[in-house]
Amino acid sequence: MSSAQPSDTVTGTATANVTGTTVTAFAAPSQGELVMKVIPLPADVNANGDIFGGWVMAQVDLAGSVLPARHVKGRMATVAVNEFIFKHPVRVGDILSFYACIQRVGRTSITVQVEVFAERYDAQGQYLKVTQANLTYVAIDEQGRPRPIPR
Predict the structure, then answer these.
(1) Nearest 5°: CA angle at 16, between 41 and 88?
(2) CA-based angle 120:37:58, to the nearest 5?
(3) Residue-wise pLDDT tens for the chain (151 aa)?
(4) Which CATH number is associated with domain 33-139?
(5) What are the extents of the domains in the chain?
(6) What is the dihedral of CA 21, 22, 23, 25, to 10 degrees?
(7) Which has the closest alpha carbon to 43: 56, 35, 53, 52?
(8) Of the candidates 3, 29, 1, 5, which has an alpha carbon nearest to the alpha carbon of residue 16?
Protein backbone atom coordinates (compact mmCIF):
# COMPACT_ATOMS: atom_id res chain seq x y z
CA MET A 1 0.00 0.00 0.00
CA SER A 2 1.61 3.29 -1.01
CA SER A 3 -0.37 5.78 1.07
CA ALA A 4 -2.51 5.82 4.17
CA GLN A 5 -6.26 5.50 3.82
CA PRO A 6 -8.45 8.53 4.63
CA SER A 7 -9.71 6.67 7.72
CA ASP A 8 -6.12 6.70 9.01
CA THR A 9 -6.31 10.47 9.51
CA VAL A 10 -6.31 11.52 13.13
CA THR A 11 -4.83 14.99 13.58
CA GLY A 12 -2.00 16.70 11.73
CA THR A 13 -0.13 15.03 8.90
CA ALA A 14 3.39 14.62 7.64
CA THR A 15 4.79 12.72 4.68
CA ALA A 16 7.69 10.37 5.28
CA ASN A 17 9.72 8.00 3.16
CA VAL A 18 9.59 4.80 5.19
CA THR A 19 11.88 2.11 3.79
CA GLY A 20 11.42 3.21 0.19
CA THR A 21 7.64 3.77 0.33
CA THR A 22 6.16 7.21 0.82
CA VAL A 23 3.34 7.12 3.35
CA THR A 24 1.34 9.77 5.12
CA ALA A 25 1.84 9.58 8.87
CA PHE A 26 -0.33 11.19 11.51
CA ALA A 27 -0.13 12.47 15.05
CA ALA A 28 -1.29 10.14 17.81
CA PRO A 29 -5.06 9.76 17.98
CA SER A 30 -7.05 12.02 20.25
CA GLN A 31 -9.85 9.48 20.71
CA GLY A 32 -9.51 6.32 22.71
CA GLU A 33 -7.24 5.56 25.61
CA LEU A 34 -3.63 4.44 25.27
CA VAL A 35 -3.77 0.99 26.86
CA MET A 36 -0.50 -0.61 25.75
CA LYS A 37 2.82 -0.04 23.98
CA VAL A 38 5.08 -2.76 22.65
CA ILE A 39 8.04 -3.22 20.30
CA PRO A 40 8.01 -6.35 18.08
CA LEU A 41 11.25 -8.31 17.96
CA PRO A 42 12.97 -10.43 15.29
CA ALA A 43 11.47 -13.61 16.79
CA ASP A 44 8.01 -12.28 15.79
CA VAL A 45 8.59 -12.11 12.00
CA ASN A 46 6.89 -14.14 9.28
CA ALA A 47 8.46 -15.56 6.11
CA ASN A 48 8.19 -12.13 4.42
CA GLY A 49 10.25 -10.45 7.14
CA ASP A 50 7.25 -8.50 8.52
CA ILE A 51 5.68 -9.13 11.90
CA PHE A 52 3.41 -12.20 11.89
CA GLY A 53 -0.27 -11.23 11.80
CA GLY A 54 -1.09 -13.73 14.55
CA TRP A 55 1.35 -11.95 16.88
CA VAL A 56 -0.39 -8.63 16.15
CA MET A 57 -3.79 -10.24 16.78
CA ALA A 58 -2.65 -11.57 20.16
CA GLN A 59 -1.42 -8.11 21.18
CA VAL A 60 -4.73 -6.53 20.06
CA ASP A 61 -6.63 -9.07 22.16
CA LEU A 62 -4.55 -8.18 25.22
CA ALA A 63 -4.95 -4.44 24.62
CA GLY A 64 -8.66 -4.82 23.96
CA SER A 65 -9.21 -6.51 27.32
CA VAL A 66 -7.87 -3.60 29.39
CA LEU A 67 -10.98 -1.37 29.40
CA PRO A 68 -13.55 -4.19 29.78
CA ALA A 69 -11.63 -5.48 32.82
CA ARG A 70 -12.55 -2.25 34.63
CA HIS A 71 -16.26 -2.94 34.09
CA VAL A 72 -16.37 -6.72 34.38
CA LYS A 73 -14.55 -6.89 37.74
CA GLY A 74 -13.75 -10.56 37.38
CA ARG A 75 -13.15 -13.20 34.75
CA MET A 76 -13.92 -12.55 31.12
CA ALA A 77 -13.29 -14.20 27.78
CA THR A 78 -12.93 -13.04 24.20
CA VAL A 79 -16.01 -14.33 22.37
CA ALA A 80 -15.78 -12.59 19.00
CA VAL A 81 -13.43 -10.80 16.70
CA ASN A 82 -16.03 -8.79 14.82
CA GLU A 83 -13.58 -7.01 12.52
CA PHE A 84 -9.82 -7.09 12.03
CA ILE A 85 -8.13 -4.97 9.38
CA PHE A 86 -4.41 -4.97 8.64
CA LYS A 87 -3.75 -1.63 6.93
CA HIS A 88 0.05 -1.66 6.76
CA PRO A 89 2.78 -4.16 7.66
CA VAL A 90 4.32 -4.01 11.12
CA ARG A 91 8.10 -4.16 11.17
CA VAL A 92 10.76 -5.15 13.67
CA GLY A 93 11.59 -2.15 15.83
CA ASP A 94 8.31 -0.29 15.31
CA ILE A 95 6.93 1.21 18.51
CA LEU A 96 3.30 0.10 18.53
CA SER A 97 0.72 2.11 20.45
CA PHE A 98 -2.65 0.47 21.14
CA TYR A 99 -5.64 2.74 21.69
CA ALA A 100 -8.96 1.34 22.86
CA CYS A 101 -12.47 2.64 23.37
CA ILE A 102 -15.63 0.89 24.46
CA GLN A 103 -18.25 0.77 21.72
CA ARG A 104 -21.07 -1.02 23.54
CA VAL A 105 -21.84 -2.45 26.97
CA GLY A 106 -24.52 -5.13 27.06
CA ARG A 107 -25.88 -7.26 29.89
CA THR A 108 -22.98 -9.77 29.80
CA SER A 109 -20.72 -8.47 27.01
CA ILE A 110 -18.60 -5.47 26.04
CA THR A 111 -17.50 -4.56 22.52
CA VAL A 112 -14.25 -2.64 22.15
CA GLN A 113 -12.55 -0.92 19.23
CA VAL A 114 -8.75 -1.12 19.15
CA GLU A 115 -6.57 0.96 16.86
CA VAL A 116 -2.86 0.25 16.51
CA PHE A 117 -0.44 2.97 15.46
CA ALA A 118 3.21 2.43 14.56
CA GLU A 119 6.09 4.80 15.01
CA ARG A 120 8.62 3.52 12.51
CA TYR A 121 12.19 3.35 13.81
CA ASP A 122 13.26 5.86 11.17
CA ALA A 123 10.24 8.19 11.63
CA GLN A 124 9.81 8.68 15.38
CA GLY A 125 6.97 10.99 16.40
CA GLN A 126 4.95 10.17 13.29
CA TYR A 127 2.10 7.71 13.75
CA LEU A 128 0.75 5.41 11.06
CA LYS A 129 -2.39 3.37 11.71
CA VAL A 130 -1.39 -0.20 10.94
CA THR A 131 -4.32 -2.19 12.36
CA GLN A 132 -7.85 -1.70 13.61
CA ALA A 133 -10.18 -4.21 15.20
CA ASN A 134 -13.47 -4.65 17.02
CA LEU A 135 -13.66 -7.38 19.64
CA THR A 136 -16.33 -8.59 22.03
CA TYR A 137 -15.61 -9.86 25.53
CA VAL A 138 -18.08 -11.58 27.85
CA ALA A 139 -18.05 -11.61 31.65
CA ILE A 140 -17.90 -15.18 32.94
CA ASP A 141 -18.32 -16.87 36.31
CA GLU A 142 -15.98 -19.48 37.82
CA GLN A 143 -17.61 -22.21 35.74
CA GLY A 144 -17.08 -20.25 32.50
CA ARG A 145 -20.75 -19.31 32.06
CA PRO A 146 -21.81 -15.77 31.08
CA ARG A 147 -22.70 -13.56 34.01
CA PRO A 148 -24.15 -10.03 34.22
CA ILE A 149 -21.73 -7.11 34.16
CA PRO A 150 -22.00 -5.07 37.38
CA ARG A 151 -23.64 -1.67 36.82
Answers:
(1) 50
(2) 100
(3) 333 333 453 434 444 444 555 555 556 676 799 999 999 999 999 999 999 999 999 999 999 999 999 999 999 999 999 999 999 999 999 999 999 999 999 999 999 999 999 999 888 889 999 999 999 999 999 999 999 999 8
(4) 3.10.129.10
(5) 33-139
(6) 120
(7) 52
(8) 3
Kindly report the backbone phi and psi dihedral angles of residue 64, in degrees, each rounded to the nearest multiple of 5, phi listed first.
-65, -25
Angle at 114 between CA 51 and CA 38, to 5 degrees: 45
State pTM to two decimals.
0.82
Q: Specify the 3-state DSSP secondary structure of 27.
A: coil
Residue 150: how many CA atoms within 13 Å on its side-chain side?
9
Q: Cα-Cα-Cα-Cα dihedral of 123, 28, 3, 38, to 10°? A: 60
Cβ proximity of 87 and 131 under 8 Å: yes
